[in-house]
Amino acid sequence: MNTINCPHCHKELPEDAMFCGHCGKECQPKKVEKSEAPELSSESQQQPVEATVGVHPWYRFWARHVDYLIFGVVLAIVFAFVYPQALSIPEAGFGLLTVFLWVFVEAFFLCTWGTTPGKWLCSTYVRDQKGNKLTYSVALGRSFNVWIRGVGFGLPLVVLITQLVAHNKLTSKGITTWDEEGNFKVGHTKINVFKVIFVVLIYAGYWMLTAMSKSQ
Questions:
Q1: Distance spanning both ends of the chain, measured CA to CA
Q2: Entry pTM
Q3: Where are the alpha helices (DSSP H) in the chain?
């Protein structure tokens, strides 16, 4: 198979690679005619999507995990007050439930914010091809697609396979299967150092609470 070298980090890549799987930068930039550039509405300009900064699979990985972590904690608190018996289910079962219920909550965030708490902290946004926020039904379809083909229903071994396949697709083609099929644009802005610190604090707080709960 023919190969090319990334013009930025000079790593060897497949000939048809649009983005570098090592540095995340575009290695075969295409000129876009001015008439083809999507017009962003005034609403969408409040949360710009910068499609020129690379694919950044790790932004997306951590964004999703932060979302699961935050939602899992909120869900546990709600169950503690509404249905305490639910907290007695095995940890693995609670994790699967969290990943499934997040599908509906994520769709709500995407149609209202254009991002989610985790995506916002990792400077990641989702739009349609015209730069507008998704409708709830469209966002729900995308979230279900991610649940099945991106995280493999949350099943331990399956999620490893689906994430490896998705990572390979994203780094080689610059887009995931579900975003390509739905004509979605996932963009990133520069990550603020304070957001990184906040993410670290979220994980530190979670592990501290987990350790305290197990010691009791």
A1: 58
A2: 0.74
A3: 57-82, 91-112, 117-121, 136-145, 156-173, 177-182, 193-215
